[in-house]
């Protein structure tokens, strides 16, 4: 879908890849509706987008609150006329082995990473189906294609998002509604992302330790993702280590399981 003059809704747009995507899509001629649980970060982005001549609306929304998500979608449709592209970007992480994760944390991460996109899609679909047009973009992760010890809660949500996206892709194609699943490896926002996350069980874990290594700058990543939307690409991956590990999973599964066991054994250094 060509981006020029399209109306785009992005969740979790106050920082990181959400903000970079908002700026990239505005530069390509889109009008934006940006939401985040932390709306203070949204004001300067709106000024930047308006300064390049595009419209930008902002709203504070906790994506895990289903009534708020309905209000957000209704508001976006009211203010922009319709939504061409929905980008489910908001996400959180938890670092810790599953045995240390309290149920309240499970509810938190499932609420933001999985229920959030389910709510937005549930409420946007009637509008897109009526127009027989639209594009849904889900920000998954390489962690939605491969499992990583100490990131199990996140894996569960992102694997869920992978399945959700694959089924949506199949079911919505006949309605001219496209779906893109973005599965990045580490992005330059990774340290901030981990800082915003919760750490369970580990005393020595420092935020950023997971995201250390090959990290793609978010502005470069945003260009890749915008290109993928324009080309109606379904699956987008970035990085080297993540896609390589995913290749091992598919081609040499026993090695993938061994590496998982070794990673789990190495976690002792963080206790
Ligand atoms: N950073 C990485 O290395 C990386 C890698 C793969 C996938 N991702 C995915 O990319 C997405 C964005 O991550 P990022 O690196 O930009 O992180 P980030 O923490 O910089 O941005 C996430 C945004 O989501 C917002 N948010 C958190 N909880 C929310 C809620 N309940 N409702 C609404 N908004 C909420 C935050 O305020 C923040 O602005 C996430 O879905 C993440 O899983 C990130």
Q: Which structural traits does this protein have?
A:
single chain; 271 residues; alpha/beta; Rossmann fold; seven-stranded parallel sheet; two-stranded parallel sheet; 9 strands; 49% helix; globular; binds nicotinamide-adenine-dinucleotide
Q: Would you write up a description of this structure?
A:
By secondary structure, this protein is of the alpha/beta class. The protein has a single domain (7-270), classed as NAD(P)-binding Rossmann-like Domain (Rossmann fold, 3-Layer(aba) Sandwich). The protein has helices spanning 16-27, 42-51, 66-80, 103-131, 152-172, 190-196, 218-230, 241-251, 253-266, and strands at 7-11, 31-36, 56-60, 85-88, 94-95, 134-139, 177-183, 198-199, 235-237. A seven-stranded parallel beta sheet has the order 3-2-1-4-6-7-9, sandwiched between helices. It is globular, with a radius of gyration of 18 Å. The protein starts with 6 loop residues before the first strand and ends in a 5-residue tail after the last helix. Nicotinamide-adenine-dinucleotide (NAD) binds next to helix 1 and helix 6. Residues 11-12, 14-18, 36-38, 61-64, 89-92, 112, 139, 141, 184, 186-187, 189-190, 192-193, 196, 211 line the site of nicotinamide-adenine-dinucleotide.
